[in-house]
Amino acid sequence: MSHSQEILTICAGQCGVQAGMRIWDLLCAEHGITFDGHLNPAAENDKQIDYPSVSFEENLSDQWIPRAVFIDCDESVLDALENGVFKNIISPKLVVHARETADGCYARGKNLVSQLNKEEIYDKLRTRFEECHNCIALFNISSSCGGLASGILPSIQEKTGGYKYESISLNVFPHAFTAAPVEIYNNAFYMNAVSDYSDITLLFDNAALYRIAEDYIPAVQSKKRDIEITYFKINELIAYVYSGMTCGNRSNASFSVKFLTSNLVPYRGISFLSSYATPNFPMRRELSNSVLTNHVFEKNSSNCSVDLEKGSYLTTCLVYHGPNMCLRNITQSLKKIHDTNEFISWIPNPFKTGIDFRTPVTMSNNFFEERQITKIFNHTSVAHIFESLDKNFKILDKMRCFRHWFIINGLDPSEFEEASYSISLIGKAYSALHSAAKELPPKDEDVG
Ligand SMILES: Nc1nc2c(ncn2[C@@H]2O[C@H](COP(=O)(O)OP(=O)(O)OP(=O)(O)O)[C@@H](O)[C@H]2O)c(=O)[nH]1
Ligand SMILES: [Mg+2]
Fold first, then answer.
1. pLDDT tens, 334-374?
2. Is the shortest distance between the CB of 145 and ligand 1 below 6 Å?
3. 74, 113, 145: residue to mutate for ligand 1 pocket, most atoms within 8 A of CB
4. Does 267 fall in a domain?
5. Which of 154, 177, 198, 396 has the fewest CB atoms within 10 Å distance of its CB?
6. Ligand approaching nearest to the C-alpha of 187
7. Residues near 25 by beta carbon (within 8 Å), at least 6 away in sequence
8. Residue ID of nearest Cα to ligand 1 atom 27
9. Main-chain phi, psi angles of 361, to 5 degrees
């Protein structure tokens, strides 16, 4: 694999910036980069370092600086970034302090914050692109519940269309029962926009992330059952997914983020994916590949709240991390999974696997795990997410609730209809695939 490749990341809003910090925490640990940006001498001779230049740029002081732009208007969030552990590697050229707040309203994010800060955002982003030889992917990390990130990310994407890269969004969306009223609107507008510009969107929700963290932490830290599960902790789960997706580019592995994405989206628009990474709390050391493989196909093994038993898998990418991985063994485990889980009948081999032979890093305890799996998958159960978003959106919209906040902030009323149409279309497309999942595959004479 060519390593004159880079991956850029935009972290927007509180969620994006905080999750971004955990991502670089993990990447620093994986590449042996200290928080002052230097290669750790102890790690320097280790194969673990591999290709930091994919996600870090080396500056004139030999420091490795994240290839990222962080944007928010919340000073406390940016202060933690600029004056916390990363203070030596987060330079002002990586950060945009938005001059206005979006106050939780997509329309303010889109029409006010994005307009007021557009020159600075594009300048910083353009510089970051120009530092790359061959930027192959642009990741967006954010939540679609708030106003700032959901409003500005789509406008940024419109302007960066001239660059050739894969656009990948990692998005924390509201859980159906906990969403505040206007979060439904923010989320629908963002989903409508993202379906245009993002090649794939990975859905996370905090209810699922908390559940996963709670399931694992007591098991390993039984003496500290009252341990507080914070954003800091659940963002670790987002970081593992980011790391798992990009590790092929950052190491000697024979797969890349593009290999993964091109195997995941069978039809245009069917690009709203789920993910799961075996939580790297120190509990998996003794587990075999097949036990781990079975674990990632359990019904709750998803970073978003969907019932995997109520739907079918379309496609699945699995990245196995760890030394001594045996492909034959993995293939056998996946064959069993294929026989015992619901897969769409007309994609004969729904798996794309990659092996990253490096030893995975555990952030929680800062030691190395033996084995880990990252799973990114396209599953028809996300129909339910879009159906319930569409239903709640329509209820609010029918009564014209909260619409004025969006309209006085410059949103064209036609965008309400457009967003509703778009999310209902996504829900229907996944639902149709679910209904058709058991149809017999085409006969030989019909193929080709
Ligand atoms: N997983 C996770 N979720 C977060 C984090 N911070 C905020 N959230 C969730 O994100 C949603 C709000 O999104 P924010 O990122 O705060 O919104 P914003 O883009 O800053 O926009 P404003 O609301 O206008 O400030 C809420 O549902 C929060 O629960 C975080 O660090 N991690
Ligand atoms: Mg905010």
1. 999 999 999 999 899 999 999 988 888 766 554 555 788 99
2. yes
3. 145
4. yes
5. 177
6. 1
7. 85, 239, 363
8. 145
9. -95, 140
